[in-house]
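Forwarding the complex inputs:
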Amino acid sequence: MLLYLLWLLPLFGGVLLWAFGPQLKSWAGPIGAALIGVAFVATVVLWNDATAPGGLHAGLVTWLPGWSFGLQLDRLSLIWSLIITGVGFLIHVYSIGYMDGDRAFARFFAYMNFFVFAMMTLVLSDNVIGLLVGWGLVGLASYFLIGFWFEKPSAVAAARKAFVMNVVGDVGIMFAVFMIVARIQSIGYADIFAHFQQAFSPTALFLVCLGLFIGCAAKSAQIPLHTWLPDAMEGPTPVSALIHAATMVTAGVYLIARFAPLWSASADARELVGAIGGLTAIAGAILGCAQWDIKRILAYSTMSQIGYMIMGVGIGAYDAGVFHFFTHAFFKAQLFLAAGIVIHALADEQDVRRMGGLWKQMPFAFVAMLVGVLAISGVPGLSGFFSKDAVIYGALESGHPWLYAVGLVTAGITAYYMFRLLFVTFFGAYRGNVDQSDLGIRHPELAGTAASTGHRSDEEEPHHHAPAWLMSVPVGILIVPTIAIGWLDAWPGAPWRQFFAGFFPRVNEAAVAAPFSETISTVLVFVVVVAGFAIAYVRYGAPAALRDAIARLRTETVRMPAVLVNAYYFDAAYDALLVRPARVLGGWFDRFVDPHVIDAGVREVAITSQWLGHLFRSFQTGLVRAYALSIAFGVLCIVAYYAYAFAFTGSGR
Amino acid sequence: MTVTALVLGPILAGFLLYAVPRDRARVATVLAALVAALTFVLAIADAHAADASLRWLSRPFAASFHLGLGPISYWLVLLLSLATFGGALALSGPRARNVAAQLLILQGAMNGVFLAKDVLLFALFWDLMLIPVFLVLIEAGPHARSAWKYLIYNLAGGLALLLATAAFGVVAGTTDLIGNPNAHVVIGATWGGWIFAGFALAFLIKTPVFPFHTWMPDTYADLPSSAVAVVSAVQSKAGLYGFLAIALPFLGEQMLQARTLMFVLGTIALVYGALAALAERDAKRVVAYSSLSHLGLILIAIFSGSPLALQGAVVYIVAHGLFSAALFLTLGAVEQREETRDLTRLGGLGVRNPKLAGALMLGALAALGLPGLAGFSGEILILTGIFENGFVWPAIVTLIAIVLASAYMLRLFQGIMNGPELPDLPERRDMTWIEGLAIAPLVAGFVLLGLNPAPVITSHATITAAENTRVVGSR
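Prediction (whole assembly, two chains):
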């Protein structure tokens, strides 16, 4: 019963706030947050049932034999549920402050609650189509929230792009569903895992994994389906924190961990997914170094960190990958929320070049951001340190030295761009009143400057009447796990490892002897991280750099390599290879083939047959009713003929 | 009794509606909606209604005025009454009374098509259902040209159908065969090909399928939205129903021979329609081309010979009816307010018309196959079925079309509702409760069917299984 409640409560909230938003007014926020809080409590109450052997089950509907839908809460979905409702609750509370005064305040919370429902559907389903339903619905919630300020064309375009790219992922999962149902005749996880080894040849198994991974890549912003994520930052900042950092974008990690038996059985799938994860980690990190919009820096960092997670689960280090999701949810949410405080205080300014020296005005945001930066960089003792180390070393243990090297280098780059963000934003002198061209900003509308955001409120003035604690308390609470949660997985036999002991299948390969121990690896990672920090310090944090920050920023902006500014030209390539050809072809069908080829062909046939031509001409009397009458008359004639012919020539044989 | 009432009742009511004075349009439309609602209730209440049968002719072949509710026609009758209900309620303007009357006549004629258990009767109702649409097009449409295009195309199909029916009757000895589980009619190779070709031509034009589709965008664009909601929701399904009810049981061998051709046509329709919808600027024509795409998929499903795909086809037939009717009614409401359907001239309506935006969003989501709504449940069943039967490429092409569908449906929605408010558009009030009432049953339908299509699946599972054994058995 409680499981149904946990699942449906956020849906109830979404519908309630959507339908009665105008009546609820400012109550919409607290109600939406409270419902998610209750869902969190329900998840905690269900802990014992979920961790019992086999987990908790509840049936829903059956379409056909083999197509049964139900809910299931086991250890893996429990972890995700805790993050979705727990971090989700904090972000809801934060949003009450952040979205205060927006004229669609209730609609915002309706969408947020709906998102939580969709995400719970995804992780609670006990079958692959239920998962696909959740997968599609989170995509929809993401679409709604990216395009929340829908009067702004860039937000509208970003929302559509995110949705369409995610449908590419849905379609990949659909392909996997075809393969599974065709061979196993069932959509339930239990049946799939029980029978897949007999049902699939290695090639077929690889294709199933490939289909599932296309879904992961789209949802979790893995190359080459990542381009929607930076654009998704058009949504309000709490959305970026909840959906595009902590929960939805990590659904790909969930999917692979959920289908761990399949991955463990397919070495090819592991190679592919590990490689893509590693590639995404390093490519995203490099792009993170080239951004000026505070949210886009964090977006590329999210992409890079999910690359780590995907790499982890892809190569078979499932609990390490899931642990990195777990810690990342806290520190990345915190980074986004801290960035949100800054953006909010600066009236929607997002360009870090126009910030600087903010630690004096916003010490709390500074501390929160600092802790987040330390955690994501992997400073020993903080949460990111443990999880990232586990993933990187997992690559070595599973016999992927190249991925290990990629993970190592990426750790250094991560430290570099995160400290770059910190120094440019909080140190030196405030540059918000500096002329944009002095900073090298040529296209403010592309750079996330205040002029381009769509935050609409009823009042003329920026609003400041929501109590500040609504935004700072959630951030303050998140600081605790950001610092400490990593210790859950700090030693052999730590709680996290016990929690997942025996849960994930082992990879069926002889363990490769790692060339050096985890301690040496940790030291190595630390050295690289310090190097990344040092470069960032010299370039942005040192007294000399701070003194002529304006000139340096202008130089860097102007000299930024085009390949990085254009994010490796993925967008341009998709536009040239797919979007425009489809438009042109469609336009040609619509405006040329239909009227001038097919219709013309039909006309030719009609005209060349003179008899028809004469017939039509003589019928074109212009009298509408005459036309109608002639048709009715024709039909009647047929009926009458039969009736006459057979009524009088005797019925029956 | 019930089945006869379902056919003759609306037709009679339609003629009676002309007695309502022209200027009391609201009375006429509400009455028409009531009649449609009544047929809905009647069909549900008497779902196992006895057949009505009257021997009609015996030579050269036996034929009867034979009506009965089959498992597929049951859902089509329900769908039709919902679409007619919504269409009638949403009517307004000076011609509302006449269009409402024609909608009822159309409903009766189409009920005749779906309830006919005699092929000849089916063919007669088939031609009859052209007339109300033609009259509405002539009376309320802006171009007489599209009315004629509609009529000529569909009469050509009707003629082919009539000839094929006559030949079928002569060869089989009787046309009183639809839905008869004891009918063991095998049409031999001599005539089978020609008979099938006649049926197929009629069905393909009606659906329509590439390359017989060019009448459709014109018709859909020019018909008042209320009428196009009914035509696109239900009349377009008559051809598909024909394949299911006539071709599948009696011409299985010929269907097997035509499979490759139909797969090619269906696949072309899928992609062609999707791409054209992506480029089209007229909102109604976007949905028209999307129908071309979606119905191509159903055609593939019907010819795949997979029981799962056939069940999915029926689900998708009903689903497409529900969401396309909802989409056209919503677009009608938009057009009525803004006096244009041009996506390049519309924009930003969502600010002042949130309810209208919500309705359009729901329809668009169902159409693009959002998991959880009816379009998805039909698609996944169909695709799994055809994939299971070994037809990998049609399934993969469909997956591409699904991605395109999300692109053109969002383009449609965003083009109308999102973006900055345009100063030169008239500001009109949001959706009225009566417009909401017209669309609500359709939305409820595609939500429920998306959650659980089992009622539609199980009610005809036995039939499809039986029909399928013939197709597969003759392989």
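Confidence is low (pLDDT under 50) at residues 447-454, 456-464 of chain A.
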